[in-house]
Amino acid sequence: MSSAPRPTLRLTAGQRLRRNADFCAVREQGRRIDCGVFLLTWRVRPPGPPANPRVGVVASRAAVGNAVHRNRAKRRLREIYRQHQALVPPGLDLVLTSRISLLRLEFSESAQRFAQACKKLTPASTPHA
User: Fold this and answer.
1) Which of 20, 29, 44, 56 gets the most CB atoms within 10 Å of its CB?
2) Residue 31's pLDDT is what?
3) What does the alpha-carbon distance between residue 98 and residue 103 come to, in Å, rounded to a whole number?
């Protein structure tokens, strides 16, 4: 075994959207990428020191279903983001909105769709304020 410490891929409090105002700002001012099984909405944060990207996950009762399905969908989206967070440029806020079809699709296919969407989040495609 190697004694070198493994890098952690945890989502810290600073990497999550938690305030309703942050979610609203992303939805109102951001851009959308439809990934089929989920919707990725993103916006560039106001100028300031470079910061890690932040993510928020949404699964509504109308779109996903009961509490078991909503929680499973949110766990799946958080895990996809956690594994691929290095693909997201710094200074962005993301909101991942689940659809019921996310639970029917293989995890690897959902992750591949997220990775493809992240390629569209380049600084050249950021909206102008």
Assistant:
1) 56
2) 93
3) 9
CA angle 58, 59, 64 (to 5 degrees): 160
How many domains, the chain? 1
Q: Residue 21: inside a domain, yes or no?
A: yes
> What pLDDT, on a 0 to 100 scale, did the predictor assign at position 124?
43
Residue 113: inside a domain: yes
Below-50 pLDDT ranges, the chain: 1, 4-6, 124-126, 128-129
Q: What is the spatial distance between Cα 85 and Cα 72, in angstroms, rounded to a whole number?
A: 20
Structural domain of residue 87, as residue ranges? 14-122
Average pLDDT, the chain: 87
Distance between CA 96 and CA 50 in Å, rounded? Answer: 22
Q: Does any domain span residue 4?
A: no
